[in-house]
C-alpha cells in the first residue's frame, strides 16, 4: 500500500498545478468590468501560488497581489 504522506504530497502537487493553470486569464462577470488574473509564482514547497488581479476597463489598472494557500489532508 502507498505511503499516505507520499500520496498526500502527490495530490497537493496535482491540485496546486491545476489551480495555477486554471486561474490565469480573464473573468467574465455579468456586471462590471473584467478582471485579469496573472500567475506570478508557485511556491517551491508546493503549498501556495501568488497571483495578480487587475481591473480591465478597458485597460488593466489597480493591480493587487494575492497569495492563495492550498492544504491537502488525507481523510
Structure in words:
This protein is of the alpha+beta class and 75 residues long. It has 1 helix and 4 strands. It has one helix at residues 4-23, and strands at residues 25-26, 34-42, 48-56, 60-69. Strands 1-2-3-4 form a 4-stranded antiparallel beta sheet, with helices on one face.
Order of helical and strand elements: HEEEE
Overall spatial form: elongated
How are strands sequenced across the largest beta sheet? 1-2-3-4
N- to C-terminal separation? 16 Å
Total strands: the figure is 4
How many strands, what sense, and barrel or not for the largest sheet? Answer: 4 strands, antiparallel
Low-confidence stretches: none
Rounded to the nearest angstrom, the radius of gyration is: 16 Å
- The mean pLDDT is 88
Structural class: alpha+beta
The DSSP helix count reads: 1
Helix content: 25-40%
Strand content: 35-45%
Characteristics:
single chain, alpha+beta, 4-stranded antiparallel sheet, 1 helix, elongated
Summarize the SSE layout with pairings.
Blueprint: H1 4-23, E1 25-26, E2 34-42, E3 48-56, E4 60-69
Antiparallel strand pairs: 1-2, 2-3, 3-4
Brief overview:
With 75 residues, the protein is an alpha+beta fold.
